[in-house]
Amino acid sequence: MKLSAEVNIGIGLPTTVPGATGDLLLEWARRADDGPFSSVAVLDRVAYDSYEPFAMLAAAAAATSRVRLATMIAIGPLRSTALLAKQAASVHGLSGGRLTLGLAVGARLDDFDVAGVEHKGRGKRLGEQLAYIRGNVDGDLVGPSRDGIEILVGGLSGPAYSRMARYADGYAHNGGPPRAFANAAARAIAAWSDLGRPGRPKLWGQGYFAFGDPDRGDAYLRDYYAFTGPFAEKIAAGQLTSARAVKDYVRGYEEAGCDELVLFPCVPGIDELERLQEALS
After folding, report:
1. Is the pTM for the entire model greater than 0.90?
2. What fold does the segment set 8-280 form as a domain?
3. N or C: more exposed end of the chain, with fewer CB within 10 A?
4. CA distances from 215 to 8, 123, 143 (A)
5. Is the separation of the CB atoms in 209 and 196 below 8 Å?
6. For 38-80, how does the pLDDT look when each residue is reduced to its tens digit (9 = 90+)?
7. What distance in Å separates the CA atoms of residue 248 and residue 254, rounded to the nearest whole number?
């Protein structure tokens, strides 16, 4: 959905929200494709009751024909490099070239523990993965083709911005008020410029909304972000619960230079998508 000449609106699929069934997730994707939202996106957890992101996007590829399919973000180092490349290329091919691959190092220790992957050194591993995917290393061996996959990198550290500038097409911010996005976007643009790349990176942001049952949305966000400690309360307090809040949030991101703003539901019912469409109209 395009609100202006500047910002596109994507919709998150409730793959990590309690109560979301497979049929419901596919209905979200189909409705978003008709919406007309510009993308559908998924989150990534292992140690959580959630759907695997590349499996979900493969299913969404069959249920849609227009929207981009985005990981916002996938935790690259939880997967082997070749497997990550294979998963991404498969979704890209199944969707007719609509994948936006957002990657970051991940912050939750339990995801790494349950996956049996070493948490230390994950930044170095992500850099190697980005070089592999972007450089099309072993493209004849680990197919299908990865040509044309749009890559975003997330994170707030100096190395994260450097990885973004070196390997990616853009930057994925992990949410918060527009001023937080503006600060992160400025650092991403600076890193891009410092590396001598022309133009500027694509800038993606995200937010959370719950209209019909904000208390349920609060509970979900507090649980999902429990690893942050008291900061989870601040994240929950930032969810958008009214049409006015959504409009103000979108306007703030637009003014901060966001190209694609993905809004993730905190309650799974399809009526949440309908109410978001009304709020954006």
Report:
1. yes
2. TIM Barrel (3.20.20)
3. C
4. 28, 36, 45
5. no
6. 999 999 999 999 999 999 999 999 999 999 999 999 999 999 9
7. 10
